[in-house]
């Protein structure tokens, strides 16, 4: 690990032409994670067919019906089989019947879709031949404004995706671009609110402009895009899918991420309320909540929890893996929740633990020591110039701290 912070890409937008970070070579045990273990168990020991073989094998060995081993394995097989039977029933009760999907009639709108998770989703949907619109502030306003041939400009169609320059935090601009999308592609049937920005700064150092900007992009944009989306679907009676991209930080915030975590908690709660409303009078509209842990995107590119056990429990998840899960759920016409890795599905239960235990776990995971402010790093750089020792560039685990970048003005 370098002694100082290495240059990092701007972290105020999820949009980037690179969909994931280039990972350095990792030791073999880095791929051994809790998710991998659970996946193996679900397809072996906790599969109904395999579990049913256990008591059958004991009977083949002439084990009596009253033997403890036969009774235990039979009970285990029954429990596993019941879980597999009841799980789809549970989903049906929770999210209703699946809506019918005809990809020829679907129009997908993705915010923040130039890279990261949004970029992966745009690529997958485009490969299916679906009309895809990407709304992103990083799309060049004009062809002349493109910095290189790899960039895209407003209104340009490339590889089955139509790109629109849009600051989704600006209500009037979002309203105008939405009308253009409907005119160009038709009525959207899938809306994926994905775009987000982040400030890794202590609460007292946040400027009002930064606070408002982050809340407008991360939270208000969900409201101002979902409203016309749902209004169009309800007026026509057609089905659709609304995807809300939140974060595991909505349940467990982190130091120096007060506004970001609050914005994600807000959209999570909004999703829950909206799902309850739609279930009553518009069951043909499905809602999907995406609450992943750390993705291999540039938004939190410098955050690295060190150690085998931390990587085992909370590995960095590929954006492509999450995108595939989302597309699969949309393809089935289902509503639900997508949470990867495994701990993200259980993190809310941490709140029931004693507060002291929660504190110890947070200290062990290092979740509150991963971010440094731009002002502190500037102070550290000044100290370097005067020959003083700088201790602010790494956390206590030796991890280079994340730098907060200034917001870009339109």
From TrEMBL:
Q: Name one Pfam family in it.
A: adh_short
Under the heading SUPFAM superfamilies, the entry gives: NAD(P)-binding Rossmann-fold domains (SSF51735)
Which residue range or ranges hold the Ketoreductase domain?
106-294
InterPro entries given for it?
Answer: KR_dom (IPR057326), NAD(P)-bd_dom_sf (IPR036291), SDR_fam (IPR002347)
Q: Which Gene Ontology molecular function entries are recorded, alphabetically?
A: oxidoreductase activity, acting on the CH-OH group of donors, NAD or NADP as acceptor
- Compositional bias, Pro residues, is annotated for 1-10
Q: Which SMART domains match?
A: PKS_KR
Positions of the region Disordered?
A: 1-26
Residues crossing the lipid bilayer are: 68-86, 107-127
Q: Which residues form a coiled coil?
A: none
* Protein name according to UniProt: Ketoreductase domain-containing protein
């Amino acid at each position: 690990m370098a002694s100082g912070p290495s240059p990092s890409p701007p972290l105020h937008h999820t949009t980037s032409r690179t969909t994931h970070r280039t990972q350095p070579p990792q030791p073999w045990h880095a791929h051994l994670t809790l998710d991998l273990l659970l996946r193996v168990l679900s397809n072996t020991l906790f599969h109904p067919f395999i579990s049913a073989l256990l008591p059958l094998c004991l009977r083949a060995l002439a084990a009596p019906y009253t033997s403890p081993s036969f009774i235990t394995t039979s009970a285990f097989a029954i429990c596993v089989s019941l879980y597999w039977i009841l799980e789809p029933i549970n989903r049906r009760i929770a999210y209703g019947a699946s809506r019918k999907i005809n990809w020829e009639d679907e129009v997908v709108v993705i915010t923040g879709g130039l890279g990261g998770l949004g970029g992966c989703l745009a690529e997958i949907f485009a490969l299916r031949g679906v009309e895809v619109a990407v709304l992103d502030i990083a799309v060049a306003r004009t062809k002349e404004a493109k910095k290189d041939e790899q960039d895209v400009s407003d209104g340009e169609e490339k590889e089955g995706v139509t790109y629109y320059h849009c600051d989704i935090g600006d209500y009037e601009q979002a309203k105008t671009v939405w009308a253009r999308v409907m005119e160009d592609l038709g009525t959207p049937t899938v809306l994926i609110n994905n775009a987000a920005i982040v400030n890794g700064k202590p609460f007292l150092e946040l400027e009002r402009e930064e606070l408002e900007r982050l809340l407008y992009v991360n939270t208000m944009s969900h409201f101002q895009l979902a409203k016309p989306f749902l209004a169009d679907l309800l007026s026509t009676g057609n089905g659709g899918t609304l995807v809300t991209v939140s974060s595991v930080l909505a349940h467990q915030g982190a130091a120096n991420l007060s506004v970001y975590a609050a914005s994600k908690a807000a959209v999570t709660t909004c999703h829950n309320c909206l799902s309850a409303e739609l279930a009553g009078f518009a069951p043909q509209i499905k809602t999907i909540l995406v609450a992943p842990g750390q993705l291999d995107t540039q938004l939190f590119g410098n955050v690295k929890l060190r150690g085998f056990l931390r990587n085992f429990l909370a590995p960095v998840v590929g954006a492509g893996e999450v995108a595939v899960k989302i597309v699969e759920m949309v393809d089935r016409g289902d509503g639900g929740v997508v949470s990867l890795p495994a701990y993200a599905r259980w993190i809310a239960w941490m709140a029931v633990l004693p507060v002291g235990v929660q504190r110890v776990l947070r200290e062990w995971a290092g979740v509150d020591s991963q971010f440094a402010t731009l002002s502190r790093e500037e102070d550290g750089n000044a100290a370097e110039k005067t020959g003083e020792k700088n201790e602010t560039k790494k956390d206590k685990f030796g991890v280079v701290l994340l730098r907060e970048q200034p917001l870009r003005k339109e």
